């Protein structure tokens, strides 16, 4: 697919160096870098408790407990001095 994009200068420089180092076009380099970024996002989680949803967002899986607004209010009141 053909499209036009605007890159920040530092991203352009990185992509250009990557392309030259791999012996590929700038378009191929940007595609490869984007895929690697998506793969890294999907495969890593900053915490063992967090999981990645199919859309890439980090979520806390449900453990069956429900947190009510009253529980939140009580917790906030405990933190007040």
For the biggest β-sheet, the strand order reads 1-2
Spatial shape: elongated
Question: Helical residue percent?
Answer: 40-55%
Query: Average pLDDT, to the nearest integer?
Result: 86
List the helices and strands and how they pair.
Layout: H1 9-22, H2 26-43, E1 51-52, E2 58-59, H3 69-79
Antiparallel strand pairs: 1-2
Helix pairs in contact: 1-2
Structure description:
With 81 residues, the chain is mostly helical. The protein has one domain (9-79). The chain has helices at 9-22, 26-43, 69-79, and strands at residues 51-52, 58-59. A two-stranded antiparallel ribbon has the order 1-2. The longest helix has 18 residues, at 26-43. The radius of gyration is 21 Å and the shape is elongated. The mean pLDDT is 86.
Annotation keywords:
about 80 residues; mainly alpha; two-stranded antiparallel ribbon; elongated
The gist of it:
With 81 residues, the chain is mainly alpha-helical. The protein has one domain (9-79). Helices cover 53% and strands 5% of the residues.
């Amino acid at each position: 697919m053909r499209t036009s994009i605007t890159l920040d200068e530092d991203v352009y420089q990185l992509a250009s160096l990557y392309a030259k180092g791999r012996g590929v076009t700038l378009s191929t380099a940007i595609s490869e870098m984007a895929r690697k970024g998506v793969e890294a996002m999907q495969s890593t989680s900053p915490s063992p408790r967090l999981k990645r949803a199919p859309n890439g967002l980090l979520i806390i899986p449900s453990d069956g407990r429900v947190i009510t607004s009253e529980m939140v209010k009580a917790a906030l009141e405990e933190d007040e001095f």
